[in-house]
Task: inverse folding
């Protein structure tokens, strides 16, 4: 099957120790790689304030994975999210070509910078 580009964000409960948080992130990374996914980028946003309380928590540990996978791997990943009591929220989205380009520019630090134009483009 054809691999599609995805982005998965999940929020872990803030009561976990640093080691428990790392172990949980590695667990979900392993679920992806065991199901044939290729992780393109991962980003740990760390402990952040939530917009509204979730399960009586006001903060949570945010983690993002950008990956290429078969659509069947998503069902397995989300099932693991649901089974793990340390996960308080998760969201997996399919990335289109514009989102992929945006993420690449973000990783390279090119966001917010004006694109340089040549004299021919200005005319």
Result:
């Amino acid at each position: 099957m054809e691999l599609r580009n995805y982005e998965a964000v999940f929020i872990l409960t803030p009561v976990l120790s640093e080691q428990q948080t790392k172990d949980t992130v590695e667990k979900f990374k392993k679920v992806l790689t065991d199901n044939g996914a290729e992780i393109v980028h991962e980003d740990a946003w760390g402990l952040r304030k939530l917009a509204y309380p979730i399960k009586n928590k006001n903060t949570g540990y945010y983690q993002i994975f950008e990956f290429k996978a078969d659509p069947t791997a998503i069902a397995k990943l989300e099932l693991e999210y649901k089974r793990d009591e340390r996960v308080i929220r998760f969201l997996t989205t399919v990335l289109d070509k514009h989102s992929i380009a945006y993420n690449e520019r973000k990783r390279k630090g090119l966001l917010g910078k004006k694109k340089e134009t040549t004299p021919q483009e200005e005319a």
Notes: The mean pLDDT is 88.
